Each structure stands twice: as structure tokens, then as C-alpha cells.
Amino acid sequence: MSLSKIKEELYKKETNAEILQHQQSEFNSIGNGAEKNIGGEDLWENKQNKLSSESKKAFKIGALVLGGIILLLALVAGFYKIRQSFFAQQNVSVSIGGPDNIDNDRVVSYEIKYANKNRADLKNAIIKITYPDYFTPEGNSNFISAGTTSGSFNLGVIKGNTAGVVVFSGKAYKPKGGLMKIVTDLSYMPSTINSRFIASDQLPVNIVSSPITINLLAPQSISSGDEVNYVFAYKNNGTTDFPNIKIKAEYPDRFNFSNSDPKTSEGDNVWYVGNLSAGQEGRIVVSGKLNGDRDNFALVKVSIGSDSGTAFLSYDDENAQTKIIASSLVVSQTVNGLSSLDIDAGEKLKFEINYKNEGNIGLSDLIVTEKLDSNILDESSLSIDGGSYDGSNKTITWKASDHSQLKRLNPGQSGKIDFSIEVKSVIPITSINDKNFIVSGLAKIDSPDIPTPVNGNKVIASNAVNMKLNSKLILTASGYYNDAKISNSGPLPPKVGNETTYTIHLSAMNVSNDISNAKVEIVLPTGVMATGKIYPENEPLSYDERTNEIFWDLGTLSAGTGITSSAREISFQIKIKPAINQVGNEAVLFNQAVFSAKDSFTNENLSFTAKGKTTKLSEDGSIGDNYKITN
Fold it and tell me: Cβ distance 503 to 488 under 8 Å?
């Protein structure tokens, strides 16, 4: 081996040994933490210097990144802070202020304040006001109504950092004690944002008085079965006229209505006043019989108001109660043997008054009275057993001089008094208000020996009987050969085997009450038929060929039809084809016409029968003797 080869090998071994020694040194250093191998100190120091430099570089980069993030956050926060200084929703406000206790029919004003504390302007700003339908805005300039319950003020632009106020005025029409709310909404669009926002406020308001008042008078106490009078006094104390005023009463459970002055407009408890002018007043008196258990209280309530849609809007109401107490005297009466009945025109009414002392002491010098409250009684037909009739107040009075038993009535004793009177045959009807007639008989008995309760009303025994008058139906029938409305043909006198036509006229009248389900039925004999011709053509007349019946459906007829208004009329044609067995006689066109209906006031089923017609038809003078059948 040459010298150069030997040097190369030696050098190579030495180098390999150093590399191995260096690697072992690093391994030991890493494993022991503080141990150094011979010949590795410089390498370790260089490594440490290199790591320190890289750490410093990483720290600087991290610090720069963190600083950038903080700066970015600061910029964002600053942006939002600056933006907030231009607009924030909480910097816009609206509020309503004014009286929270008001009177009806008095103009009140409310201040609606608004503010914009932003730097940005508010565009398209509108204040919308919502209120109940019984509040009426008045005297508001620039107020735009949007119906019966809302309206608005158009503010346009509200500049930044500005405030303002609008005044909203009006009147309320609601019962005293009522509560209403006025709601305000400020709608706007900031100039910096393309969105719409709303700020709101509301104010509850109490109604403490009403311009329309109603007062109720009722007896403090009565005995069960006695007559009671309720008085409703009403007035418009305001400065505004009120249209469509209505009064409604709610009676005690055991109250039997008899009549009222003025008469009711609907049922037995509703009166239509109509327009109630400023300062106008009136009163209603209601009479009836009140029953109840001893020491119980009977409550009556009355309200005044108007209809609002389907509901009744009350402006004022009042109630009162009457105590039911015992009386030592008892009185009762019947008419034609009944305590309750409906009557007809021309009917005779037989009254029987019964009285009894149910107390424990004798009673002396008793007086019995009967008040007949009606203008449809025939006073000339009055028949009384003793006593005296005063036509000025329509009262019959009996004393001990008429009936000796009235001088002294001991405990447990009883007696009776009779009299009679007739209903007028012709009921006086002069206007559309003449309807729903009632005959009221009020019997009373009294004695000076009856004690008077302390701070109470003196108890006088009484008993009322109330009789409703049924309406009277009237139907007239007539027939013609020569008729102006429907032309007729055929031989006259009628001839066997030939057809002859006639026109029948019907006229329906209704006297004193409204009626419903009104109709007329006619049965034609075999050999007589309806032709189908009628006048007027729109009248609801029908004919059943199988039964040979004619039906005229009148439906509803108002009271006074044919008296205060025109009668309901119809004409229709019939034809007859005589048979051989009828020769020499007048032929029957129909036997009768039956007019029936239901009385809307008494709920009675009414009926009237008109006589039939033959070919004689005396109302048609042109027929003469040409009415008997010829061959």
C-alpha cells in the first residue's frame, strides 16, 4: 500500500471517529441535560445562539400580529362608536301626555312629544294615533283620518338633535266609569340606514262622567203581587246632539210588564228616543205587577245609549231595588174568571175583586178602588155594584156606605166586589202609533189601621190585571164579470157546457197589532177553476189543481193596514163550466175565504172568515138577473 493510500485511510478513520464522538456527545447532552462531551462545547453554544435568535424572531412576529388585531378591534369599535353617534334606536322617543280623567262630550287635548337625539336625520316620520271608536277627534290641523279608530300626523323629516310636539284633541262618548287607551306610534327611517323603526307610547284614560244621564225611581218596598211603577228620567246635559238614542230596561225576574208611557218600541223593555238634542229631557213610566218572596229584593236596571255595530253602547245606567214585605191586607182580581187573558174588540169584561184580612188585628173603614187605564173601553157600558165612577181619572171607588163589610174586616174575613165593562167594538186608530193596546185594571185596598213602617212607605195592598187586545182581521170579497183589471168572457147568464169567467177581488185589513204568517185560503167547488190570471202579477197567489185550493200568502202586515195605510188587495180570475143539474139556480163560485195570521203582540192565532160568492155578484150591477144557469 502506498503512503498516500495509508494517509487517506487514517484520515478517513479519524474523521469517522470524530463524527461518531460528536453524535454521542449530542445524544448524551440531550439525554442528561447538562452533560457535555469532549469536543462538543462549541457546537452546543452555536445551537443555543441559533435557537435564541429564532425565538426572538417568532416573538417579534407574534407581537406584530397581536398588535394588528388590537388595532383592528380598535378601528372596528371606533367605527361603531362613530356610527352610533350618527344613529341609535334608543335615541328616538315619543310620549303622550294629558288628562287621564275626562268627562264625556268635553274636548280634551293631549301633547305628543317626540325627540331625535341622533346626529342623523329621520326621514318619512309619521305619528300614528289609535283610539276607540267612541272617541271623536276635533280641531286637529294637519291630522289625517284613517277611519273611525286611527289617524296620523305627517312630520316629514326630523333633524338630528331636535325635538317637537303635536297636539291631539277630541271628545269621548263612553259610559261613565269606562276606560279607554290612546296609543301613539312614531314611524321613521334613519338617513344612514335603509330600514324603518317604530317608537311607541300609550295613555290609559278614565271616563268620569257622561253628558247623557238617566235616573231611576222605584218604590222602596211593596207586598208581593202589588202594582209597581218605575220612572226613567233622562236628559242630555251636554252641548252636542246625540242621534239614535235608545233606552233599555232590565226587569226583576218576577216582574210582569203591563204597559208604559210612552209605549215601547221593541218588546216590553226598549224605547227608541231618536235624536236627543242638547238640553233635551224626557221620562218613561213603566207599570207592572211585582211578585217575590218576603224580605227579598227585586232589582231593576235601566240604560241609555245607542247601537254601535251589533252591540249596545251605554252612556249611562242606573239601578234600584225594591224590598218585598208582608201586608195584612190581600187583594186579588179576575176577569172573566181568569187572572191573565187576551181580549177582543166588543168583548164584555166581568171583573171580580176579592179581598181578605190576613193580619191578627181587625181593620176598619176600608176603601177599595179600581183604576181602569185604557181608552178602548166603552164607559157607557159600565155596570157596578154600588160605588162611584170618576171619569176624569177612570177610577171606581167603594166605601163602607156601598159595602157594609168594608166598615169592619176582622182577621181571617174576606169579601168580594163585582163590576163589568165592554171593550169598544170599533178601536180608535188615527195614526201608526195606535197599536198594541192594553186594558189595565188596578185594584187597591187600604185601611187607616194598617201601620206605617218607620222610614218606609205605607203598604197599600194592590193587584193588577193586564189584558192585551188582539188585533182584528178584516177580509172583504167581491166579484165582477165586467172588470177593469182582468177581462172576462163566456155567456151571461152562464150556460151548461160553456165556460164563463169572473174576477174575484180580495181586500185584507189589519187593525191594531202587527201580524205575521198572514194568509188567505179559498176552496173552490168542483166545476170551478182558477185560470192563473192575477193582478198585481207579483202578488204571491198559488193554486193547487188537485185540491182546488187557492192560497194568498200575505206574510207580515203592519198594524193599521187598511186604516192608516192602504189595504192589501189582489184580483184573480176563475172560470165555471155549469152542469145540467145546476140549471135554474145560481152557481157557487166559492163558499168562504179564511184570513188567518199570528198576532205579534199577543202571540194569539187570529182568524176571520169572509162569506163566499155565487154567480149572482150583486156588486156588479151589469149582471142584473143574468146569474142563473141556463141550458
Answer: yes
The DSSP 8-state label assigned to residue 411 in this structure reads T
| CATH 1.10.3720.10 matches 89-209 | no
| d(C-alpha 397, C-alpha 369), whole Å | 4
Q: How far apart are CA 266 and CA 248, in angstroms?
A: 10
| DSSP type of residue 385 | S
Q: CATH code for 219-325?
A: 2.60.40.10
Max CA separation in the chain (angstroms): 188
Kindly report, residue by residue over 244-289, the tens digit of the pLDDT. 999 999 999 989 898 899 989 988 999 999 999 999 999 999 998 8
The rounded distance, in Å, linking the Cα atoms of 589 and 526 is 10
Q: What is the pLDDT of residues 68-118, one digit of tens each?
A: 777 777 665 555 555 555 899 999 999 999 998 887 778 899 999 999 999
480 vs 457: CA distance, rounded Å: 69
Residue 463: name the closest of 342, 356, 387, 347 by CA: 356
CATH match for 329-469 among 2.30.29.30, 2.10.109.10, 3.20.20.30, 2.60.40.740: 2.60.40.740
Class of domain 473-614: mainly beta
Q: What is residue 19's predicted lDDT score, i.e. its pLDDT? A: 42
Q: At what angle do helices 3-32 and 41-86 cross, to 10 degrees?
A: 50
pTM: 0.60
Question: Can you tell me the distance from the alpha carbon of 620 to that of 203, in angstroms, rounded to the nearest whole number?
Answer: 80
Residue 534's DSSP bridge partners are 572
State how far the alpha carbon of 70 is from the alpha carbons of 58, 75, 81, 467, 543, in Å. 18, 8, 16, 100, 102
C-alpha cell read off for 259: 204597559
Do 615 and 486 form a contact (C-beta atoms < 8 A)? no
State how far the alpha carbon of 190 is from the alpha carbons of 86, 129, 152, 193, 304, in Å. 9, 21, 19, 5, 50
C-alpha cell at 313: 253602547
Give strand pairing partners of 446.
367
Q: What is the DSSP letter of 3?
A: H
At a CB cut-off of 8 Å and minimum separation 6, what does 577 contact? 497, 498, 499, 527
